[in-house]
Specification:
alpha+beta, UDP-n-acetylglucosamine1-carboxyvinyl-transferase, Chain, three-stranded antiparallel β-sheet, globular
C-alpha cells in the first residue's frame, strides 16, 4: 500500500547546521569584484557550475591570478582595477551571469575584447545593457544580430553624463 501523505507534528525546536548552495549570479559577481580589488581575496562557498567555470576561465584569460583553495573556495589576486591583458577572445558558453558583468567591466578597460558563447547565448538579448554603456561612451559592436551577442568591445571614449537610463524589466544581470 502506497502512502499518499504523512502528517508530522510541528517541532518545537530545531538544531543543526544548514549549508545552502551558492548562487551562480552572486558567485560570478564576487569573483569579478575580487579580480578588480587590490590584494588577495578568499572567497568561500562559490557555486560549482558551468557559469562559474566560464567566469574563472575568462579571468584567467585576462591574466587574473586565482587558485582553487579546496572545496568551493577560491583565492583571487586582485588587479587593482585594471586588467593587464588588453586584447582577449572570451568564450563564455551560455553563462549570462558572466557575459553581462564582463561586458560592462571590459567596456571601460580600454582594450579590444571579443565576447561570445554557444549558439543559445547568441539568442539572449543584451541590447539594453549595450545601450546603457554606449550612453557613457562605450564602443561596442554586434558581430551578428543587433541586440545580441557575440560582441566586440573597443576602447571607450568615456564622457561624463548626469544619469544613465537602464530598463529594469529585462534582466537582473547588469
Amino acid at each position: 500500500m502506497k502512502t499518499e501523505f504523512l502528517d508530522l507534528p510541528a517541532a518545537s525546536t530545531a538544531h543543526g547546521t544548514l549549508r545552502l548552495p551558492g548562487s551562480k549570479s552572486i558567485s560570478n559577481r564576487v569573483l569579478l569584484l575580487a579580480a578588480l580589488a587590490r590584494g588577495d581575496t578568499l572567497l568561500h562557498d562559490l557555486l560549482s557550475s558551468d557559469d562559474v567555470d566560464r567566469m574563472l576561465d575568462a579571468l584567467r584569460s585576462l591574466a587574473v591570478d586565482w587558485q582553487h583553495a579546496g572545496g568551493n573556495d577560491y583565492r583571487v589576486r586582485g588587479t587593482g582595477g585594471r586588467f593587464t591583458v588588453c586584447e582577449a577572445d572570451l568564450f563564455l558558453g551560455n553563462a549570462g551571469t558572466a557575459f553581462r558583468p564582463l561586458t560592462a567591466v571590459l567596456a571601460l578597460m580600454g582594450g579590444e575584447y571579443r565576447l561570445h558563447g554557444v549558439p543559445r547565448m547568441h539568442e539572449r538579448p543584451i541590447g539594453d545593457l549595450v545601450d546603457a554603456l554606449r550612453q557613457v561612451g562605450a564602443q561596442i559592436e554586434y558581430e551578428g544580430q543587433t541586440g545580441f551577442p557575440p560582441l566586440r568591445i573597443h576602447p571607450a571614449r568615456l564622457r561624463e553624463v548626469a544619469a544613465v537610463s537602464v530598463r529594469g524589466d529585462v534582466s537582473s544581470q547588469f
